[in-house]
Structure formats: C-alpha cells, structure tokens
Amino acid sequence: MTIRYALIQNETLVGKNRLVAQVYSVGTLDEEELIRRVSAAGTTVSESDTRAVFANLKKLLREAILDGFNVNIGLGTFSTRIKGVFEDYTDRFDPNRHEINIVFRTARWLVKDVRNQARTHKIPPHEMQPNLSSFLDVVTKQRNSIMTPGGIGRIYGSRLKFDPTDPDQGLYILGENRGVLRVKVIAENRPHKIIFLIPALPAGSYRLAVRAAVHGGASLETGFLSAALTVPDGMSLLEEGDEFFAAGPFLLGRPLDDR
After folding, report:
1. φ and ψ of 148, to 5 deg
2. 118 with 3: CB under 8 angstroms?
C-alpha cells in the first residue's frame, strides 16, 4: 500500500517557488489482469466465469446509463452531465454545441480507506522514467508476446508521451544483435497510451523502449517494456530506409532476457 510521488514545479504558481507532489503509478491493471487476479484470489469462480460477469456488467452499465439512470456499483456512482451553453429556455440539445459526459463519484468508504491506510514513498527525479506496463498486438490480439510487422501496436502505461520533434526522444525497438530502430509512424502519443505502426521487421526477439522528458524535466529518461516480443518466422523483412543504428548509452545494459 505505497503511493509513490515526486516533487515538481507547479507552473501555475509563477514566481512563488512552490513545489507540488506528482503521483506516479507502478503500472496499470487492465481488464484482463483484473480478471486473472479475481480468479486467482482463492475463489471457486473460474476465469471464464469472471470474464462473462465483467462483460455482462459492462453491457448492463452501458444500457442503464443510456436509459438515464445513475448507477452505483459499490465502488462509486456513474452519472451523466451535459456540457455547453443553451441560448434560452426554448433551446434544445445540439451535438455541435453540447456534449454528454460521464461522471464517476468515488464511494466515500473507498476514499476513507485509501486516505487512512495508504503509505507514501518519495522518489527522486531519476525514477520518473516512462513506464511501459503492457503491449498489445492488434492483429493477433496477443499481449506482451508477438509483434506483427505492418500491423498496429499499442503500448499502455504512464509517463509515455514524448516530443516527436526531438530526435533524442521517441519510441524505440531494440533488436537482438541488431541495434536500435526508432519508430517513424506514431498514431497516438499520450501519457498513458502510444499507438504506432509496427515496422517491417525480420523474425527475432525484440524489446520496446520509450525515451522522453517526463513532465518537462531537464534530462531525458528511458523506460523499457519488461517482456521480450517475438516476430515469428515468415513475416515481412525490413524495408528500405528502416535501418537499425548502434544503441546509445541510454539503451545499453538491457539484454533481451532482462525481465
């Protein structure tokens, strides 16, 4: 029960030399991981049964919200809000001017438990590196195992966003005995998700790394996906212009079997 945080400058307090705490998660538990943990928690419910319950809960939650209900799931309450300005009492909802948002209000008992039981741990700036928690190969639907050349890859985590205009930042593919390939085509570049076009790669084992200036820091930090990814035999090879270059100091010392 440890909440990791680091102190950063608050840009809204100009000239006041104030610092605020920035919380850094140890990763993101997605639906599949939650299902696995629920099934492994000493219950008699199988993983397939848990997955069915999750699917049914999502379906019922969606239908109830669309029917205009607030939904309390014990952990908190889902409700809807309409954003935008109406001209007068005869004005109606216009999707071009108004937007429906979903609001989640956390249950008081959960907030109270976290505040009373959580412990904090201050981390130095050099630990504020990008965190690559999982990789999804969209073509095969496999997680943390296969990369399909020419397909779409998704990386989930935290502190992932980088400056694409900086040649020293980016998403990198580390090839065994090949060096480093900087990914060229990035569809989404967000703090919690990167979507990219997987280059044409020869069969082999690879690792992913993100190098970025976290929260505008002066130094660049590098984070690695812990799992080694495989391009199976028979898939397309490198295309002209997609060349590996020698690994820089920031990527050295990370063998493919370093998990």
Report:
1. -105, 110
2. yes
Start-to-end C-alpha separation, the chain = 23
Strands 2-9 and 19-24: antiparallel
Q: How far is it, in rounded angstroms, from Cα 58 to Cα 235?
A: 36
Task: Write b or e for each residue in 132-158: b if 16 or more Cβ atoms lie within 10 A of its Cβ, otherwise e.
Answer: bbbbbbeeeeebbebbbbeeebbbbbb
Distance CA 195, CA 157 (A): 12
Domains, the chain, with CATH or none: 2-122 (4.10.520.10), 129-251 (2.70.50.70)
Both tokens of 5, joined, read: 């945080």
Instruction: Dump pLDDT digits (tens) for 177-220.
Output: 777 899 999 999 999 999 999 998 888 899 999 999 876 566 78
Please tell me the predicted confidence (pLDDT) of residue 216: 58
When mean pLDDT is compared across 10-24, 127-141, 155-169, the lowest value belongs to: 10-24
* Rounded distance between C-alpha atoms, residue 31 and residue 143, angstroms: 12
How many CA atoms are closer than 13 Å to the CA of 203, on its beta-carbon side? 4
The band of 151, judged by pLDDT with boundaries at 50, 70 and 90, is: very high
Neighbouring CB atoms inside 10 A of 33's CB total: 14
Helical residues (DSSP H) of the chain, grouped into ranges: 31-39, 47-66, 108-117
Phi/psi of residue 24, each to 5°? Answer: -120, 120
